[in-house]
Amino acid sequence: MPGALRRQPTNKNCMSQFTHHHIAVFLLTFFSYSLLHASRKTFSNVKVSISSQWTPSCLNDSALNLEPYELWNSSHLFPDEKEATLFLGTLDTIFLFSYAVGLFVSGIVGDRLNMRWVLSFGMCSSALVVFVFGTVTEWLHFYNKWFYCSLWIVNGLLQSTGWPCVVAVMGNWFGKAGRGFVFGLWSACASVGNIIGAFLASSVLQYGYEYAFLVTASVQFAGGIIVFFGLVISPKEVGLPDVDKEVDDKGEEGAREPLIGGNDNENEDDDDDPNYSIQAADLSSSSRNVNNELQPQAIGFFQACCLPGVMLYSLAYACLKLVNYSFFFWLPFYLSSKFKWKEAEADQLSIWYDVGGIIGGTIQGLISDMLQKRAPVLACSLILAVACLFGYSRSPDSKPINAFLMALTGCFIGGPSNMISSAISADLGRQEMVKGSSEALATVTGIVDGTGSIGAALGQYLVSLIQENLGWMWDFYFFILMISLTVVFITPLLVKEVSMLLEARRLRRLTG
C-alpha cells in the first residue's frame, strides 16, 4: 500500500505509552529553555532604562548640572539617545552572531557528550555572565563598550548550548506519533520564558534595571542546578525502549517517516535501497551488539546539511527568525517610543505577542499531525502573517486593540517559528536517511537554528538602522519582505507535499 495510505499511529496509543519520566523530561526541558529565554528578554525589557543611563543628563534642561562633570557623567557612553539605541541594536547583533556560531558547535558537541552536562553548564555559566553584564557593572559604576560586547559574545556562545540539547532530549523521548502537537505545545517554552522575563523585569524595574538582571540570573542559575540532578536524557537510562524501536516492534510501519515531503511511494524493503542510509559506509560489524542491533553513531556536520529538507528549512528559518526576534528584541522599545507608554506597561503588553505564539504553535502543530504534512500549514500561516503585519503597523493608540493585533501577529509568526525550530527539526533529525543514528538530532537542530540565528543577527542591526533613518513603518515593510522570502524557500517542499496529499486523496477515492 502507498505510504500516504499507511496506518498512522494514533495519539491515543502514544499517550498510553507516557510515563512519569516523560512528564519530568517535558517539564525540565520546557522550563530550562524558558529560563534561558527569560534572561534574554530582560535585556529587551530594560532597553529604555539602559539608554537613559548611557545618555548625558545635560541634554535634559530640567536636570541639575553637577560638578565635576567627569564624576557624575562617567556612565554616559553616547552623546544622544539615537547612538545609544544603535549600540543596543549592535549588542543584539553581536549576541545573535555568537549564538549562531555556538549553535553549529553545540549541536555537534551535544551529540557526542552527555547533554545533561552540556545544558546545565550552559545555563549556570550564562547566568553568571548576565549577572556581571547588568548588575555588577552598575553596582561598580563600570561602563565600557568593549567590555559589554565581550560579555555578550560569551553569553551568546553559552546560551547556544540550550536549544539543540533540549530538542534532542525531547526527540529521544517522544516519537513521531503526535509529535506536531506535543512539540507545538512544548515549543511554547520560548514564549513562556519571554513572559517570565517580562514579569520579573517589570516587577523590580522601579528599583533599577540592575535588579532585573539580578533576579533573572539567579532563577536561571538555580534552574541549571535542578537540570543537572534531575534530567534523564534518554529512555534507555531508565530501562525503557527507544521511542522509534517501540513503535516498530508494534508494527507501526510509518512511525519513522519524516513529515518533510519524502517519497511515500518508495519500496518498503529498505534493505534493497543502496542509499538507505548516508552512514552505510561508516557502519561495520563491530558496531553491532550482541543482539545484532546497530549502535547509534553521531552523524557528521556536512552529512546533516545534505539531508532532505535541512537547507531549505534552514534558509526559511533565517528569514522567519529575523522577524520573530525583531519583535522579541524591539517590541517593548517600539511601544514606548511610538505611543509614549511607560516602560513597565510596554513590557507587560508585549506578553500578548508570546501568548499568540503559544496558541499558534499548538494549533498548527495539531493540524500538521492530522495532515501528516508540515509545509502546507506553514504556508497558510505565513500568508496570514503578512496581513497581520500590515494591520499591526497601523494600530491606533489603544492598548486593547494593540494587544489583540499583537496576539494575532504572534500567532501567525511565532507559531510557524516554533514549528520549524522544534517539531520539524526533530522530523529532519530522525528521518529514514539517518536510521541507526539517533545522535543526528542535536546536529540537525543546531544547523537549522544556527542558520536562523545568522539571519536574525543581521536583522537586528538593520531594524535599528531602518528605524533611525526611515521610521518604524519601513521596518514593517522589511518584515513583510522577509515573511515572503520564507514562503519562497519552502515552496519546493510545499508543492511536493500538496501533490502527495492530492495523490493520497485520489487513491482513497479509487480504493472506495
Gross geometry? globular
Number of H/I helices: 20
Unreliable runs: 1-15, 59-66, 68-72, 247-258, 260-295
Mean pLDDT: 77
Molecular structure report:
70% of the residues lie in helices and 0% in strands. The protein has 20 helices and no strands.
Concise structural overview:
This protein is mainly α.
Which short descriptors sum up this protein?
512 residues; mainly alpha; 70% helix
Question: Which helices and strands appear, and what pairs or packs with what?
Answer:
Elements: H1 11-16, H2 20-45, H3 47-53, H4 69-72, H5 81-110, H6 115-139, H7 145-159, H8 162-173, H9 179-186, H10 189-204, H11 209-230, H12 243-249, H13 301-305, H14 310-339, H15 343-349, H16 351-371, H17 375-392, H18 399-429, H19 441-469, H20 472-510
